[in-house]
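Next comes this protein:
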Amino acid sequence: MKNVRLITLKNIYNQGVKDVPSLSKLSGLSTRQVFRLMPKLRRGLSLKRKPGSGRRSKLSPNDKRRIIQLARKDDYRTSQDIANEIITRGSPEVSSSTIRRTLNQAGYFKYVPKPAPMLTRKMKTKRIEWAKRHLDTNWNKWFFRDESKFQLYRCGVQRWG
């Protein structure tokens, strides 16, 4: 997306639009970005970042794989817990935001599970009545194919998924 905007910016500049506010509005980039790119535009240089520029990652590919395994093993684990755990396993100390970024790049995102509808008082009494009616039933003769999950209280715990 950004490469398209950079190409658009260069095309607009080459068509004769030279002021920063107009270039910003037409290209969709911020005025600050356009202002910083103006020297490159004037000299006719490429607007792409140089390969290898930027800080190198503290985490090796093995460290990243370990982070993903820990999140997959226990999806309720917080990023801070994972950061503490990888330190004990010999990886470098990193922040919880680095853990989140690594997991996001691997396709894992934190989410709160969709809330299930709570049981109403009427539903609870019906279940109790049904259980009392079938107290003497011999359940060895029955075969259940469906299992339903329900929760008594709302859960706002986030999971990796």
Observations:
- The mean pLDDT is 86.
- The helical segments are 2-14, 20-27, 31-43, 61-73, 79-88, 96-105, 121-133.
- The first strand starts at residue 110 and ends at 111.
- Strands lie at 110-111, 159-160.
